[in-house]
Fold these 4 entries.
Entry 1:
Amino acid sequence: QVQVVESGGGLVQSGGSLRLSCAASGIIFSAYTMGWYRQAPGKQRELVASITNSGSTNYVDFVKGRFTISRDNAKNTVYLEMNRLRAEDTAVYYCRATRGMGSYYRDYWGQGTQVTVSS
């Protein structure tokens, strides 16, 4: 019933921009912290950015100033605006929805969308 679906990935040249979208259904979207993660070939999945239900954002240093995370609760969608892309940004980007803790903890992942930055 719960679905987290990413879209917007593709091929872009170094220095270019791309906007990813993640639509969630089957959850009370406004209550969830949403996050973007990425995984490059041969590497572990890593956090890129997150945004809480109150709109507080967090960015990993290597994307700070280049990427912007935002959410539209009316559309149950979170976005990742990526600017000044680099070849090392190439990865599968995943959307994550989390809520609560302990017995109330919920954690849902999307299947990912490929972002390829050509140099």
Entry 2:
Amino acid sequence: QVQLVESGGGLVQPGGSLRLSCAASGSIFSINAMGWYRQAPGKQRELAASIHSSGDTNYADSVKGRFTISRDNAKNTVYLQMNSLKPEDTAVYYCNVDGWLSPFNALNAWGQGTLVTVSS
């Protein structure tokens, strides 16, 4: 069974930085993409950043230039470096992995969520 364990959330002041980590464990045949979604209270979930197996990245306009997504393929781990944090970045951040458990069994798994609070 695949599990995604997130860490790195917490309370930071505006302008500060945090680095989120998400480690996938279990048998994974291949990974198509990994990403970070976030959901603030009263708002729908949105994709903050994603990284494809090719290395191509995608960012929401609201975080572009401030967030950087990266990966360690050997460890099946994805990171989100968040700089110049703003109060509007406050949300629960969820890691997502899209891939395959086997050639005939697709994988789409979610982490437990980690809370990022940006406040003075």
Entry 3:
Amino acid sequence: QVQLVEPGGGLVQPGGSLRLSCAGSGSWFSISAMNWYRQAPGNQRELVALITNSGGTNYADSVKGRFTISRDNAKNTVYLQMISLKPEDTAVYYCKWTIYVTRWQNANDYWGQGTQVTVSS
């Protein structure tokens, strides 16, 4: 079984910075992609950023240029560095990994518990 834990989150002023992390535990054959989603009350959950196992990245237009996704394979951890934060960034942020548990099975999605990020003065 795979478990993702998201420490961090918190309150930050507009224009400030925050780094989220997501650490995975368990066993798997390989990781297809690591993703960050967010969901504000009353809104749909949206994909914020992703990184593939080859290192390719992609970002939502709303965060491009301000957010950076990265990973540390040795620590089984993915990060989301957020700068120039805006009130519109306020949401619960979720980590999701797409993982091949074995080499002969289809990939499965695993979610972190979510962490609250609030941007307010």
Entry 4:
Amino acid sequence: QVQLVESGGGLVQAGGSLRLSCVASGYTSAYYDKGWFRQAPGQEREAVACISTKDGSTYYADSVKGRFTISRDNAKNTVYLQMNSLEPDDTAVYLCNAVFFSGIDEGVYWGQGTQVTVSS
């Protein structure tokens, strides 16, 4: 069973930085897409950033372009989200997501989430 575990959330002042990590385990497929979603109270879940483990291609939501950077370390089965210039509107639960497109692991998987709170 594929498992995703997030870490790195916390409370920061506006303008500060955090780095989130998501470690994947329990899979056999070589390549998959991995990313971060977030959900604030009363709002829809939003895709923040995604990355392919195969070629490193990325996607960013317009609201975080220029401030957030997604990266991965395939050897460590880990994806990172470096968040700079944080704003109060970034406050949300951040959820790690992985999508496997083939093989016995095919499907969509979610972590439990980590809280990010930005104060002003």
